[in-house]
Amino acid sequence: MLPRTGKTRQWEEMDWTQRLPEISRNSRLARAAWMLVAVLISWLHLFVHTVGIRSSDLPLDDASTWGVARQGLGRLFTLPTEFHSQPPLYYFILHFLLPINSSPWFLRGISWFFCWMLILFVLFYWHEVSLWARVCFSLLFIFSSLTDYLSTAVRPYGLASFLTFVASIMLLRLLSDPSFRRGRNYFLWATPMLYTMAFEVAVLMVHGLVVVAAAIAALLRLPRPEALRRCKIGGLTMGALVLVYLPYLLLAYHYQYKPNPVASLNRILLVKTYADILQAMLGFAPSLFLGLIALACLGIVAKFRQGDGRVLLWPLMIVIPIAFVCYFIIGRSPIGAQHKYMLPALLAFCALIALGLEQFRPQREFWLVLIVWLAIVIDAHFQPFHRSMTDQPEIGQFTILHRELMTFPGKKLIFFNVGYDGQHLEYVTRNDPNVLYGTMRGSHWASGGDNHLDDDYIVRTVEKNRQDCRCFFYHHPTANGPYARAFVPTMERNGYRPTCSLPAVWGQRVVGYCRD
What we know:
The protein has about 525 residues and is mainly α. Helix content is about 65%, strand content about 5%.
């Protein structure tokens, strides 16, 4: 795993505009063509992934992310881990951006921005591969099925995609020619990567294995002083990274760890598991997917023939994150092993495909064809994007509920039989001080803990707020639950009269009681 280093250093010292001989010998034409390609790819990313970004309601996870991020800074050190199992970095970023804007398009646009930063990094700073390969990676990433979620969810996965890929490239540069400067650069990118997404622990495992493999290769092939120097730099860098990561690991263990009662080892021993997950992430037809696997294998073989063993990083980043998530999640979480948890595998697979395509160098005429093709594809995606930006945004059911609540003057409090359902309405009514909530928040409230109301909580909440609230509402009443046992008797005892039912939300009734 000790590739030639002179060429890499020479490339790093170049300005990016000097790395364009593949397009044209005319430097001005080369720069203009490359900038046009980069701009077109950026517009393509915008048009493909921002349709519907203005819709008014946020999904449950997104609304919960907003709810956590708006808490005080002191709470943000532990609350994301307690609620969502996630490290706090993304929540801190969102916390400081909320005063600027909290509308749906802005919150979703943060993830779109980080995915765009990933594309720009690939196009302009992944200089170890050809321009053709970088364009292929960008297009694969844009049209992958998972990327639409990564680019629009109010969740840390867009940021994690950007940081994971950049940190992995910094590791490859560190391994190519170890120095304390490169170790510092890798450390500065890998630290925020680890504090962005819970399952980045699998990426840390991959990076550690690659560093160990590089150290063994150095001890076998290089003079002892040089080998020890490389081992020292790699070891100190990884050791510092583990120490910095320990606080989150301890928090995650404290708040979220529980034994796994289900044997999930069999699934990760099947090759089909990895193939099915990668195909689902990309969303391409089976025949095309098989061709992409062949290109990925070609990329691995080509790099080994060049003596670049660092390419092992990418297949390991496919196998280990998928295996880790499947083994860890199954039996511990009712939502299962979702593809967003394994996003490092998508990035690594796209990188291997790009390395395979790099073996086919296109002619200069290709770039003209590419520009025309990008223009046609962009035009096809522009109309849906334009309609989504100019038409009235989609009105969600909780927005409709809020409008109905506004027809009742004064303060009102709404109980949610399942507490975390209230997060939808809390986001919609974020600027309405007249709507209060009864959700009985408890331990792990946002992730399936103490979410159901009990009789005593309803009675205490009504008694506490009845002086200020003119109306009380109840979401999803049940005949034999706290609604019948506690809510209705308490309303009648305090002189509240039933109102007409409000519009149902997801088929669940909302009933209310008001006083004159």
